[in-house]
Design goal:
By secondary structure, the protein is an alpha/beta fold. It folds into two domains: 78 residues; 198 residues, P-loop containing nucleotide triphosphate hydrolases (Rossmann fold). Helix content is 50%, strand content 15%. It contains twelve helices and eight strands. The protein has an eight-stranded mixed sheet with strand order 3-2-4-1-5-6-7-8, with helices on both faces. Helix 10 links the parallel strand 5 and strand 6. The radius of gyration is 20 Å and the shape is elongated.
Length: 296
């Protein structure tokens, strides 16, 4: 798992670690400090966090400042997520997000993970506005060996959700994972539909614990913060799945999500296969971000 995450952060780490290494080997001029500041900002770590890192570098420049930076960054991140904490069952996990953020693929990966933990899992294909999403989930559900509820004759996400929860209730499913309709955060009618789905679950299926998770495309950088803030206005976001981490140099967006909005990244997607998915681990993440080996 460490090697996978370490490899996924290669693009982000390349420029950051190179700048850090210059500081370690040189006299730490103002120009070199400004260089590391620029690299950190480009990685979307966030202005306040970057300023704190610079202060640490200046304070510990005569010692092991990189170790101190690592400690600080780990403390700034959400704690290690434990996916087994869903002790109150049944649970509805509604996966929300903008089209193109890897939402449907993440739904399948999440289902496979919970299935492998010994849970009975049902997928609900409520992204009724995109026929490809339903077809995609049909394939993924077979690969993950989980049940799928869909209705290709309905374009009402709330109707499909109701059917899915009814079937899941009858089948005593532990976890229901819902692929909601991907939407731009500026489309108020679609966001209202998301609110409706949340209300239906609360009112008609009160025995279910509801968890809302947003997919965040790490390639989008700070634009993701705007999206997350808007979604959080309409439904309470409990956590995030950071996708496409293996293709970006902006791997620092996790800090802004947690510090600015209070949304913890719980899972990370690092590829297209069902197995390319792991629980977010802050220490392993920081190790991969700045190139510090575990235990140092």
């Amino acid at each position: 798992m460490f090697n996978t995450l370490f490899s996924a952060l290669e693009n982000t780490r390349f420029s950051i670690s190179k700048a850090f290494n210059k500081l370690k080997s040189g006299s730490m001029s103002q120009g070199e400090i400004e260089n590391i500041e620029e690299k950190l900002l480009l990685a979307d770590i966030g202005y306040d966090t970057v300023e704190s890192i610079i202060e640490i570098i200046k304070k510990f420049k005569a010692g092991d400042f990189l170790f101190e930076v690592k400690k600080y960054l780990i403390n700034e991140l959400p704690k290690l997520h434990d996916p087994t904490v869903l002790s109150k069952k049944p649970v509805v996990v509604m996966v929300v997000g903008v089209n193109g953020t890897g939402k449907t693929t993440s739904v399948a990966k999440l289902a496979k993970m919970y299935k492998d933990m010994g849970n009975s899992v049902t997928l609900v294909a409520a992204d009724t506005y995109r026929a490809a999403a339903v077809e995609q989930l049909k394939v993924w559900s077979k690969r993950a060996n989980v049940d799928l509820v869909c209705n290709e004759n309905s374009n009402e996400p709330s109707s499909v959700l109701f059917d899915g929860l009814s079937v899941s209730k009858n089948n005593n499913s532990d976890i229901v994972i819902v692929d909601t309709a991907g939407r731009l955060h500026t489309y108020k009618n679609l966001m209202s539909e998301l609110e409706k789905m949340h209300r239906i679950t609360m009112k008609r299926f009160p025995e279910y614990l509801i968890k809302n998770i947003i997919t965040i495309d790490s390639l989008l950088g700070q634009n993701s913060i705007v999206q997350a803030k808007e979604f959080n206005k309409h439904v309470p976001i409990d956590g995030a799945i950071l996708t496409k981490l293996d293709g970006t140099a902006k791997g620092g967006i996790i800090f802004s999500l947690h510090k600015e909005i209070g949304i913890p990244v719980q899972f990370i997607g690092v590829g297209e296969e069902l197995s390319d998915f792991e629980v977010f681990d802050p220490e392993k993440y920081v190790n991969g971000l700045i190139g510090v080996e575990s235990g140092k």
